[in-house]
């Protein structure tokens, strides 16, 4: 492990404590809620040990219970929020937080291996959702082009006030950025990383 990489459990402990305090909960408050969700073993002492780093593991079931109670995705309890932060994935592997989150989501392999092999293990239902999202983006782009064309055809482009024109440009920029992001994801799946 490099000196600046944090273990997943240490990161989770930091996030659990921060989110607990944001809600104004004591360790005991969180422990009571854990018991209500069927995890009485996550008592005040265990939570304090996780938050302080004295306990070096969190089970998957514990992670899920804590994520439900703190209203956060489990992956965001495990990884630093800074994209380039180093995370100890295994005792001998370190990667950036962004890379690990993409791996957890199933967007790309953790290392630089062939993305097609990694993608071949993804349930097809997820690809259906993924391509449906792409179709929606294409529909937005098509609609945007139709609106621009109609405004120009009617000679209304020059009649838009500045706030309306700026809002339209912001929307079109957002659609273009989302389209590029989707294209990169498809390239990762189809053509490797």
Summarize the structure.
The model has no long low-confidence stretch (mean pLDDT 82). The protein has helices at 8-22, 27-36, 44-52, 60-70, 74-78, 97-105, 115-119, 124-153, 162-191; strands spanning 6-7, 86-90, 93-96. By secondary structure, it is mainly α.
Provide the descriptors you would attach to this structure in a database record.
193 residues, mainly alpha, 434 Repressor (Amino-terminal Domain), 2 domains, three-stranded mixed beta sheet, 9 helices, 3 strands, elongated
What does this 3D model show about the protein?
The chain has 193 residues and is mainly α. The chain has a three-stranded mixed sheet.
Level-1 CATH class name of the largest domain: Mainly Alpha
Distance between the termini: 25 Å
Rg, nearest Å: 23 Å
**Uncertain spans:** none
Strand order of the largest sheet: 1-2-3
Enumerate how many helices there are, as a single number.
Answer: 9
**Topology as a string of helices (H) and strands (E):** EHHHHHEEHHHH
Mean pLDDT: 82
Which CATH architecture of the largest domain would you pick?
Answer: Orthogonal Bundle
- Total separate domains: 2
CATH superfamily of the largest domain: lambda repressor-like DNA-binding domains
Topology:
Elements: E1 6-7, H1 8-22, H2 27-36, H3 44-52, H4 60-70, H5 74-78, E2 86-90, E3 93-96, H6 97-105, H7 115-119, H8 124-153, H9 162-191
Parallel strand pairs: 1-2
Antiparallel strand pairs: 2-3
